[in-house]
Amino acid sequence: MRNFLAKTGRFMGDGRTKRQRAGNHKAGLAFLKGFLRHPDLVGSVIPSSRFLERRIVDAAVMPNAQFVVELGPGTGGTTRAILNSLSEDARLLAIEINPHFAALLKSFNDPRLVVHQGSAENIREVLESFNGLRPDAVVSGIPFSTMPPARGGRIIDAVWSCLAPGGYFVAYQFRSRVAELGRESLGQPETEVEFLNVPPVRLFRWQKPLASKQAFDV
After folding, report:
1. Strand-pair partners of 202
2. Which end of the chain is more exposed for a tag (fewer CB within 10 A), N or C?
3. The dihedral of CA 207, 212, 213, 216: what is its sign?
4. Do 11 and 58 contact (CB within 8 A), yes or no?
5. Is 67 helix (H, G, I), strand (E, B) or coil?
6. Is 74 helix (H, G, I), strand (E, B) or coil?
């Protein structure tokens, strides 16, 4: 396994303010309610840990990205981590199917963030409004293990076709279904595990070859 996060220990401290803690508590309650309403659409009953968020940011090489797409951001823990790592002129498109989560994300006060309520399957159509701009990274927290394989395959193919040459597709999952679905068309992913999360999460990363340069791959 390749280590995306070279020095995990430096994130052991907790420098969050009281306001941030209160916001996290509110988000946690919203996450639980979302899981109870739609357990098939929410990957876990507990939001991602800050250790997992940091690892996702490192895996997708966020500081170098100008345009990022996040699929299934939930209540926005990973969204905030991505925004904190992006440059001031970068953009983040969050595609969230849950209307309650989407409403929460739209309350974020950050002009770099665009929230679209809808299915990850429609990523190509959503990106058309960005004048053909292709993401440098796509991060996915949607639970591939709970959806029909055919649908999961369509989402993976759509993500890969839209991704910029040299870009990264990073999926964080509890099971390896996404790797199984993507192996034929994307190849073998780099893989690692974040144990400082409840439960531990696997990260799968693919990088698109630089040779692909058309507007959207067929």
Report:
1. 173, 193
2. C
3. negative
4. no
5. strand
6. coil
Residues 70, 140: Cα–Cα separation, whole Å: 6
pLDDT of 26 strictly over 60: no
Q: What is the C-alpha separation between 139 and 181, in angstroms, rounded?
A: 16
On the question of pLDDT at 13 being above 80, the answer is no
Pair type for strands 67-71 and 91-96: parallel
Q: Rounded to an integer, what distance in angstroms lies between the CA atom of residue 216 and that of residue 201?
A: 31
Opening angle at CA 188, ends 182 and 193, nearest 5: 95
Q: Give 134-191 pLDDT, tens digit per residue.
A: 999 999 999 999 999 999 999 999 999 999 999 999 999 999 999 999 998 999 999 9
Q: Is 91 helix (H, G, I), strand (E, B) or coil?
A: strand
| CA–CA distance, 202 with 176 (Å, rounded to integer) | 8
CA-to-CA distance for 51 and 195, rounded, in angstroms? 9
Average pLDDT, the chain: 83
The single-letter DSSP state of residue 164 is P
